[in-house]
């Protein structure tokens, strides 16, 4: 850790806070954190116990967003500060004790710096409740990539494929950039012609620069450059179901994406549109061991209330075996025999 810096990067702290508030359905806090330019500010130092540092989290957000939340600003700052106690337990010599939110005009940003996309932009580009995955590929393989996208959708993953996901009336470079700024992971489909593209290396650079998970898929070629240090996945583009299965397994295996992918499986299961989709999701769900009590209850509810799930052969039984069968309802006086 560099001297004079907080032990955890500010991007990871903000991402963790964002994930907590998203799970708690606090949309206003999520939009604030995702739109903020964040930094740590050391406010105090005490040489007790080998040196204790006191830090503040500074969040600068666009003026329109600041204006909309200003009447509730103190309460929002207090709520975010309360969540920082988690980091105090991890780092006893570094205390995050304060959060300040301030407005910043776009013209005040450093050269090349961009605000994080707003919640409204994210909802416009990505389906709600789905893992946001950018598929980096060359256009010659767009038919096979479209099939992979469909298989991923059946597994709770929204895959961004540039040639499909940009409306003709929109500025296509801006939409690709928005997808790169809001994706939760990137998959590089490394075919022999991948490196020859004008765009694919730039897309990988976005993932590397943001510090998000990059999954190279070896499609006849090994990863190269900085992507070579990432654990790759072997696959065959003409077998999209198997490749989609491997990618979801990789997202669940990685600590950085496990939580978001787990929640996406639950959300997709609740809204499964066919018995086949329910069976596909079930094959991943039964391998997850850390569902929260709320998520378990949601899975049980889907088994009982979504006809596509209840009609899927073997799905209810497999889910109950994996997460535990729900308790039978207690008998009431009306149920007791005379």
How would you characterize the overall build of this protein?
The radius of gyration is 23 Å and the shape is globular. Helix 10 (200-210) links the parallel strand 6 (185-190) and strand 7. The protein has helices at 10-23, 27-35, 63-69, 73-83, 85-90, 119-125, 142-153, 162-165, 172-182, 200-210, 240-253, 255-270, 275-285, 293-305, 307-310, 315-323; strands at 37-46, 52-62, 94-104, 131-136, 157-160, 185-190, 213-218, 233-234. With 338 residues, the chain is α/β, with parallel strands linked by helices. The chain has 16 helices and 8 strands. Helices cover 47% and strands 17% of the residues. The chain has a 5-stranded parallel sheet, with helices on both faces. It has 3 domains: 10-108, GMP Synthetase, Chain A, domain 3, CATH 3.30.300; 124-251, Rossmann fold (3-Layer(aba) Sandwich), CATH 3.40.50; 272-323, no CATH class. Helix 7 packs across helix 11, helix 11 (240-253) crosses helix 12 and helix 12 (255-270) runs antiparallel to helix 13. The mean pLDDT is 84. The termini are far apart.
Please provide a brief summary of the model.
With 338 residues, the protein is an alpha/beta fold. It is 47% helix and 17% strand. It is globular.
**CATH topology tier name of the largest domain:** Rossmann fold
User: Helix/strand/pairing class, anyone?
Assistant: alpha/beta
Strand order of the largest sheet: 5-4-6-7-8
- Counting structural domains, the number is 3
Number of helices: 16
The H-and-E topology, N to C, reads as HHEEHHHEHEHEHHEHEEHHHHHH
State Rg. 23 Å
Instruction: State the end-to-end CA separation.
Output: 73 Å
Morphology call: globular
pLDDT averaged residue by residue? 84
> What would CATH call the architecture of the largest domain?
3-Layer(aba) Sandwich
Largest sheet: 5 strands, parallel
Poorly predicted tracts of residues: none
Helix percentage range:
40-55%
Total beta strands: 8
CATH homologous superfamily caption of the largest domain: Toll/interleukin-1 receptor homology (TIR) domain
The CATH first-level class of the largest domain comes to Alpha Beta
Strand content: 15-25%
